[in-house]
Amino acid sequence: MERPDPPADRILCSVRRPLLPWGCSARKRRRSSVAYAGGESYSLGDIWLRIHSLMPMRDAARSACTSQAFLRSWRCHPNLTLNRNTLSLNPFKERKGDFVCKIDSVLRNHSSIGLKILHLDLHDDPGTFVYVDSWLQVAVTPGIEELMLMLYEKYNLPCSLLSDGVRNSIRYLRLQNCAFHPTVELGPLRSLTSLRLQSVNITGDELECLISNTLALEQLQLSSCENIIFLKIPCVLQQLKSLSVKACQKRIEIEIEAPNLYCIYFYRVKIKFLPRGALLMKDFTLHCRNSFYYARAKLLSVMPNLETLLLLSFAEVVNTPMLPTKLFYLKHLTIQIITGGAFSPSYDYFSLVSFLDASPSLETLILDVSQGRMEHESVFGGSSHLRQLPELRLDCLKRVKILGFCSAKGLVELTCCILKNAVSLEHIVLNTLCEGGCCSELDNGPSLPIGRLLEEAFRAVSAIRLYIENEVPPSVKLTVVEPCARCHSSMVVPDAS
């Protein structure tokens, strides 16, 4: 019978006679070494211990039962991820206090020497609250680079925990369900590049005080931090690239001066760009509800130097407005409804022409309108008259790709408008399948039968044949992605009329 792997909590009290980790005698082990061109020489034992330090935590813990050397290495293991999964706990079988005992055993027997990563996930166990202080005092030591602390209750994280050595080394900090009140006395976190706060009791002034001294910060994520009402992202954050803010109850107002920020995700947040930062932006990603409208009506007027723009939307319910604002340098535009998102049936696809009208230098357009269900007015119903914009100038547009192309009248009108005005167009791709995948591989969910998706794909192909193919100039390559032959044979094609 195969012997099961020992659980993590038994490793540190193992009394078995240790074996040599490389399977040879001690005398031979002492003589064995590897020399490198730079002059350094490493024993085979050093190499084995290096391999051991790179192993996943559970594997490293199990291997500590086989060798005294590995046991010493385990007590200095650089990566501790402590949760029910890594400690092999079954929530239906564990006894009260098992979780606390195992974490306490691992942390108290760890030397804290060489610890680089500590992930402590206690969010589902209220019994751990009283032990957090002692555990963190043992584990959070100078040299640590990554700290993730997920608690069950509002633990008050002391600033003293971030001592001089910790402040100089920590690169990633994630806090959940705790209170954190940094002050000027805390000092700078010189190496911190990523900060993530979820359900953390911290004010906007306290957070601004913290990040103003965190000059290496590249990513900032805030979620459900209810005490933040106003936050200013200062211009000293030259390295900040990504900002994600999600407010669940109160709206947050954010002023941004950071000059190199290019990716923003927000929900229930009011964003205001100050000219100092917005004027320098060249690449920008916006991810929110009604992002198409918000970008055109609110943001792009203060970002005149954009070259690449990516818009991701949960849902669009308001048409994109036509405005005089121009983006003279914009070359690459991607507009996408994210998975699970949708356009309102009242949304007019043709209103997206506002972005084309504003971008005379546009070279590449990717439009992803993939949806599980098309509820817009079809080009086959009602009036067959297609709208046009005779003054639209698209002199630089060369490549267009539309994913999830459907028979919605507004989308057909938008496509025809592009074909008539893009004098430099080289290639246009119309993909009638959701998310660009093969129709046999579509992930439709229980409420979206494959037949309904294929029926709309067939209608989209009919719309392309009837309204679009004749508008394609001879110099333009048209690629139509449609249902495969198997789908044609298994389903009757609906009458387009």
Automatic annotation (TrEMBL):
InterPro entries: At1g61320/At1g61330-like (IPR053772), LRR_At1g61320_AtMIF1 (IPR055357), LRR_dom_sf (IPR032675). Pfam families: LRR_At1g61320_AtMIF1. It comes from the Eukaryota. SUPFAM superfamilies: L domain-like. Residues 106-485 form the At1g61320/AtMIF1 LRR domain. This is At1g61320/AtMIF1 LRR domain-containing protein. It comes from Leersia perrieri.
